[in-house]
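A quick aside before the break. I want you to see a complete sequence-to-structure record at least once, exactly as it would be stored in a machine-readable document. Don't worry about memorizing anything.
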Amino acid sequence: MNTGELERRLGDVLRQRAEDAMNSTDTQTRLETLERDLPRNRPRVTIGRVVAAVAVAATVAALVLVNARGDDRTDTPAASVDTQAAIEVASEFVAAVAAYDAGRAASYLAFGAEIRLRTATEGADSMAAQLRWNRAVGWLLLPERCEHATVSAPAPAVTVACTYAVHGLGSQRLGRGPFRGNVLQLTVVDGKIVSGVEHAVPGFEATMWEPFTAWLLTKHADQAAFMYTDWPGATRPALTRRSARLWEQNVDAYVAAVRRGDAS
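That is the input. The structure line, written in tokens, reads:
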């Protein structure tokens, strides 16, 4: 028998005996019994001592019971959260997105997970279409680091902030960027990403997205309707295969126009 088992059994015995003592120790009843049994000529001081003894017995029994219960009680630690494992999951997800590996990226997502990007909200089922569009527009995600977010979701969830730089819409070919300061905030529970939101810096929009859109609407407005789901809003790209082909063609044409001086 190990020490822990011995201590537990001893605690059980002490607790049971203490409870028996408490149940059988009634000061008033014992006093009345003693008064009947004592000879009438016994000095009164003896009864006083007996009363004190009975009271002490009751107190000791109570203390033993409390101590036994206290010793038997163990503090249950809060559920452990593996922050480092969550960071690794987030890092692997970002790496998969950067590599256009839709299957691997989707494997890190929990059922029903949604990732709110700057142009769309994606889940496991739509990851392939999103990464197809990323590749078509030359969207290069350059991972930097992932770390535990300053403000995190309550346990057992862990919120991880992944920073990265990006190229897109031909920015690398034009000598613009990379555009830094972007953050993808991912919430991980039990090794799976349950939600995410992208916080993008405005540099890319002002330098690449807006000039490209202005050029496209001027030169190829007829194609734009197939390239955006919110047309004529021109803020949410369509993720169809046809759209991907049109995006790739027009990004190439835009880069050529900028080099000629026909676009900004």
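Two observations worth writing down. Residues 3-72 form one domain. The two ends are 82 Å apart (CA to CA). We'll return to this after the break.
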